[in-house]
Design a protein that fits this description.
Number of helices: 11
Helix content: 40-55%
Shape: elongated
Distance between the termini: 61 Å
Bound molecules: adenosine-5'-diphosphate, 6-O-phosphono-beta-D-fructofuranose
Strand order of the largest sheet: 3-2-1-4-5-10-11
Number of strands: 11
Largest sheet: 7 strands, mixed
Length: 324
């Protein structure tokens, strides 16, 4: 039987992402406006098990909308993978009067939310990850900021690569997915975009292309490499040896996860936070807020986690004729 919650706990889990603070702000303020008590659970499931639970009021989320990271902090929690840990977490929620939890994170965090729901705590997930790798949604909090940060960095690298007539390989994040690499590769006009979903691991083809590109008189050769494709430093060495073109590697790293969220990340995160509260007020549980085909919607978490998504050949090939 569905039951409207009275006390909402909110936590961030897994890798942080710019815009998570906007989502926290929305949950707190929307929750309070709807007459609920809202508590912040620090450091994801780790803080839940350690009872790091704080009362939130409207002032607790002042001045955070524009800040990167997460004021609640985040963590990965091996203990929560066990049924014993999940049972204990649900007991702790009950002890603190928390009957609904909003989990802001990625796929792993939603598996945790699913387990907490099975223990009788109403849970709602909000997709927060720079990787965009959650199948049921076309948008995840932080992706827009991360790709803009990476794009600006790659623009700068392109300036110097061009001046020195170098090949530059830039490694971007994304865990097992290539969305960040694809979007930056297109936005930066990269000569090659290497993503796990499409890359055929044919280095000779790239080497031939670098040489042909040089002969055509192009000054630089930009390769955007998704982190899961392979060792970027070793790749740069191999390409330099095979082509004779000076080649440099840059690993953008954690700068992609930080910084002030873009307008899109703020607005979408605020909307998703408010929707999560709506769902809890409607007595829903085990749901995931998503943005699909132009609308904000929600899915059953079990169904959402069983979905898959892929990068279309059309999207991948969009830039191919534009870099000659
Ligand atoms: P993300 O949410 O970004 O995908 P992780 O995969 O690291 O990040 O998951 C974050 C946390 O969610 C884990 O440290 C763990 O506490 C919890 N979690 C992940 N998978 C499960 C699972 N199968 N069952 C219960 N909890 C899980
Ligand atoms: O999921 C976000 C992400 O930044 C991935 O792109 C990356 O592979 C991973 O987290 C890095 O995780 P950690 O913070 O544990 O090094």
């Amino acid at each position: 039987m569905s039951k409207e919650v009275q006390t909402i706990g909110v936590l961030t889990s897994g890798g942080d992402a710019p815009g998570m603070n906007a989502a926290i702000r929305a949950v707190v303020r929307e929750g309070i406006a709807r007459g609920k008590t809202v508590k912040g659970i620090c450091k994801g499931y780790t803080g839940l098990l350690a009872e790091e639970i704080i009362d939130m009021n409207t002032r607790s989320v002042s001045n955070i909308l524009q800040r990167g990271g997460t004021i609640l902090q985040t963590a990965r929690c091996p203990e929560f993978l066990t049924e014993e840990g999940q049972k204990r977490a649900a007991e702790i929620c009950r002890k603190h009067g928390i009957d609904g939890v909003v989990v802001i994170g990625g796929d792993g965090s939603f598996r945790g939310a699913q387990k907490l729901a099975a223990q009788g705590i109403n849970t709602i997930g909000i997709p927060g990850t720079i990787d965009l790798d959650i199948a049921c949604t076309d948008y995840t909090i932080g992706f827009d900021t991360a790709v803009n940060t990476a794009m600006e960095a790659i623009d700068k690298i392109r300036d110097t690569a061009s001046s020195h007539q170098r090949c530059s390989i830039i490694e971007v994040m994304g865990r097992h997915a290539g969305y960040i690499a694809l979007w930056c590769g297109l936005a930066n006009g990269a000569e090659q975009i290497l993503i796990p979903e499409k890359y055929g691991y044919d280095e000779q083809k790239i080497i031939d292309d670098i040489i042909a590109n040089r002969k055509r008189g192009k000054k630089h050769y930009i390769i955007v490499n998704a982190e899961s494709v392979g060792d970027t430093l070793a790749m740069a060495k191999r390409f330099e040896e095979a082509t004779g073109m000076e080649t440099r590697a840059t690993i953008l790293g954690y700068m992609q996860r930080g910084g002030s969220p873009t307008c899109k990340d703020r607005v979408y995160a605020l909307t998703m936070g408010a929707m999560a509260v709506d769902l809890l007020c409607a007595g829903r549980s085990n749901r995931l807020v998503a943005y699909k085909n132009g609308s904000f919607v929600d899915f059953d978490i079990d169904e959402a986690l069983a979905m898959t998504k892929d990068i279309s050949d059309y999207q991948f090939n969009v830039g191919v004729n534009m870099t000659v």
